[in-house]
Amino acid sequence: MRVKGRLWLSLLCMVLLSGCMPTSDERVFQKIHQKLTSLESYSCIAQVYVKGNKEPGEFKVKQWFSVPGKYRIEVIDPGDMENKTTVSDGERIWMYYPYIDQIFLMENAAEAEEEHLFVGFFLRDLLESEEIKFCTVNREGEEMLAVELPVPGGNKYCYMQKLFFDRRDIVPVLLEIYDINGNVTTRVRYSEFVYNCNPDPDLFRKVNVTECMLYEEKDIARLFPVSLEEARQVLDFSPLRLVSIPDGFEQEYVQVVDSDSGKALLINYKGRDGSFAILQRLVSGEKGNYYYQGEIIELGDREAVYSEDRHTRKICWSEGNMEIRVLGTVSRKTLLEIAAHIR
Fold first, then answer.
1. Distance between CA atoms of 125 and 3, rounded to whole angstroms?
2. How far apart are CA 255 and CA 279, in angstroms?
3. How many separate domains does the chain show?
4. Is the pTM of this model over 0.70?
């Protein structure tokens, strides 16, 4: 990512004409500019806060970024999302759920919500913006240089962005996104930030999984668990439910994602002997696309397909225009009992 000469000249003229920026700020910004001109990649740990519709969510991730727009996110915490991976090659985005060995694909990566978590995309916006402000601020007892600019194409919830740099080490420390009223909607705190880390190109390619579901839109708030009651309010269908949870298991995670045929519901359960998940979504055909290679089995009056892939066992069937998948690391016997109790 290269800073154009006209941008630096315009910023310098703005500073000189305004007469309100201390000379020390100019020097620090010049050092930041020098870092930007040589930026090709970076890696870091990011602590992310997102203001959801009802309750805020927080998670900790490992980030990799490579210009102009490739990135990878691996969740470290919370535990029920550990190792969930988001990968973008600059055109498409894959989201991988390791506990069910399932991947969701977004064909168009343009303007993805994840962009607001990355220093790299802030720098891209910096190069294109004509409304840039910078000044020294005191945050948590430390002096930082804050660089502020509008969010391109922003809305009332994502209106302005500000990146804070350590004045001494010239590394990004904090990124904040504000709504039109100046309230923080996203906050990302960076640590272990490494410029030009030369990441392996394979980090930004499709992760090694066996299934794909295409979806077209994403809401960053859906990175966080919701209640089943909240999920029912936004689904396009009435989901089936597990009438009897096996002993030793408990519901741990509920998520709604947008698929090509509408919203899909994913519910995860964990226990002493493994984990399993129930995925439900609408499909276009009478039997959907659940007929992968596998064993035809009977679930009472329902026909289903059973298959195994590495350590994951799967049972898939359809009811009307709805497809149901039960996937997990539990035994075949347990998975069959779970499927039989979904009504």
1. 11
2. 10
3. 2
4. no
